[in-house]
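Team,

Forwarding the record for the chain on the shared tracking sheet. I've put the sequence and predicted structure together so nobody has to dig through attachments.
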Amino acid sequence: MSTAISDPPPAAGSYHRLVAQRLLILAGLAALLLLSVAVDVSLGPARYALPDVLRTILFPGAADLQMRVVIWDIRMPMALLAVTVGASLSLAGAQMQTILANPLASPFTLGLSAAASFGAALAMVLGVALVPAAIGLMVPVNAFAMAMAASLLIFGLSSLRGVTVETIVLLGIALVFSFNAALALLQYFASEQALSAVVFWTMGSLAKASWAKVGVTAAILALCTPLFARRAWALTAIRLGETRAAAMGVPVKRLRLEALVLVSLLAAVPVSFVGTIGFIGIVGPHVARLLLGEDQRFFLPGAMLSGAVILSATSVLSKALLPGAVLPIGIITALVGVPFFAALILTRGRKSW
């Protein structure tokens, strides 16, 4: 009799197996990310064997001086910036898709990346500092300021009465075209040197990575992730529809506005450091959703890990495709993301999301 009472019901056993399966998937993504980072650090103009790289990372004091400088001062910041930027953009895209109920929502498609590119171009072409106190950091500060301005515009309009999620997405698309047109106008009047700098920045690159940038992006990620985690149940409920979520006691409008603020921060800071990197905010969340489902307890870390793995793998490809050269990662993410984006649109036309 006591054995029968202590046995869990079949439903509970299925739930525990599902949780274990999802935790295993998260562990697999984490292991894949560590492997990708190690390979990323080993590649470059001078290629090192993976065991030597791991020894230098784990025991830097016992490593060769030249190898230690190359790995810790040059390659590790680039590899870790790919991780933090990929995780931030993917998390931002995941929560945009959640609160707007649209699989095409991301920092790239809602105009934040285009706004950041225009802000950076203002500094490169005209020497305009949107924040006068940051004269020495005009490019990243301008990019951040413009991305936040675009975010605040979307944030403000989304709070107006009668504005739907479809309206917000259409507004984002309008912002993309508007900022791209303004950027093209600046490029038309730019000098050859400024034009070259703008074009390279808009391609997206990790070439100017530093430990300070890694620290800032990691800090923003560490600030926003717990805030989203505290709202995991409400964010999961909102995927059932606004009416059902409101009936469950979820303050839908307030939750959407709070999420937009955090998403703006997550998107604006990385873009201001590395330039325009598209489609990570779309591809990463959909990979996580495919593997882990909609439960935010697993979807949230899964989206971050997926985005980090994708951008880290992109960094590896940028070094491996042309030996001795490092391609801008924005080019590679676009080549991968455009077919995925098209497939998403065609799939959504045949079934509801």
